[in-house]
Amino acid sequence: MAARTVHACTECGHESTGWLGRCPGCGEWNTLVEERAPEARPGPRRSTRAARPVPLADVAAAPIERFVTGIAELDRVLGGGLVPGSLVLLGGSPGIGKSTITASGLGRLAAAGRSVLYVSGEESAVQVKLRAERLGADALRVPIVAETELEVVEATLEAERPDVCVIDSVQTLHAGGLSGAAGSVGQVREVAGRLARIAKERGVAVVLVGHVTKDGALAGPRVLEHLVDCVLQFEGDRERTYRTLRTVKNRFGSTNEVGVFEMAEDGLIEVVDASGRFVDEASRAPGSVVLCAMEGSRPLLVEVQALVAESPLEAPRRVANGVDRNRLALVLAVLARHAGLGLGSCDVFVSVAGGVRVDEPGADLAVALALASAARGVALGSGERPLAAFGEVGLTGELRHAPHADRRLAEAEKFGLDRVVAPSDRVGTLRAALAEALGADGGDQLAAAA
Ligand code: TYD
Ligand code: MG
Q1: How many CB atoms lie within 10 A of CB 84?
Q2: CA distance 89 to 32
Q3: Residue ranges around ligand 1 (CB below 6 Å)
Q4: CB of 202 within 8 A of CB of 161?
Q5: For domain 67-271, is the CATH number 2.120.10.90?
Q6: What is the CATH number assigned to the segment(s) 275-449?
Q7: How many A from CA of 266 to the centre of ligand 1?
Q8: Domain locations in the chain?
Q9: For residue 252, how many other CB atoms are within 10 A of its CB?
């Protein structure tokens, strides 16, 4: 018999017995999802004892034990490894490398003597084996079940009690009690909820692999994010070699950590020295500036490239790759209004080399300098070394301090970048920063050209 279900709104929690296109509670459209009805509580309400509040200082906290995967970039974004009994959601678009990284992670754990389990709902055991053969001997040690029935997976977890289990993917599992198709919001929520319970009860670290929809959201808007302890997002273009693994949420570590990987013939290789790699690859041509970015607790040097070209279009193109479109629009407006560099009739392209994403206002100044360098056709930097920059651009043309300036500067120095333009007492405006970067006459010519 199918379990009793209700339809609950993912936005406001309103419950209804049947599906409705529009939620009567909050008026949102298409937010009702089918869920298992809560069990009726038996018996009359008994008087319960009162709980005794304890000062936080007296709460006994055992240090968190972690399963270290041995893939340093992965362990770092996890906050030091997988926490037993926790649920991790690993999201990313198809082909980005989710199955690859989880398979090699489990392989390393198995080699280190941990019991692991790989549940594949997406690929057959043979397909997973073919991948594992490319990844090497460790990955081939991983036990697999190819299964899409949630009840079977639950029973297998109870029987095997692994330390770490990967579910690839959460959208392919199907809970028998619900009528929705596998991957529907109600199903995904039910699957994750039940796996979370087993994870907690048995101390299994469960990694849920999840696909990302076209607009970049993890399937089932926000339905899983509050349920899991940690959300990792795998980003990058599948055509590019660099991939970044980013922490979106972490109950056991800091967020906004980033790990850099490279897809090679035999799996994902960690790029431990990402700054050095990106600086070496920086083009040093006009339009190129190295950004001293902060990715969580780690400084990272990345190359920002800009191209500016006279446009035949009435509404010229504004293309941003790896930086926020709105920040680019802001930087262009401030350049025009406060720094004498109007690019209104030009197509403008800005991209972060290697397919890395930088999502911080501290990237503004590097974007502005790359644009100015491209517009003027002047390479920045000194001799062989590219120019580095960081800082936020304010609406009135002022430069604002970006957090962790000392660590950004230290990273630039470590990789031999001796010219860094950043907000300071001397360089307080975007105009001053342009003069500093392009040299006095470069800045004047910009002003004259405007
Ligand atoms: P995959 O991990 O299957 O991606 P996802 O599970 O996120 O959909 O693989 C990603 C891509 O990487 C796939 O197109 C093949 C490629 N690849 C390599 O280039 N080298 C390798 O060693 C492996 C295993 C995959
Ligand atoms: Mg996959």
Answers
A1: 17
A2: 23
A3: 92, 94-100, 131, 134-135, 263, 265-267
A4: yes
A5: no
A6: 3.30.230.10
A7: 9
A8: 5-36, 67-271, 275-449
A9: 16
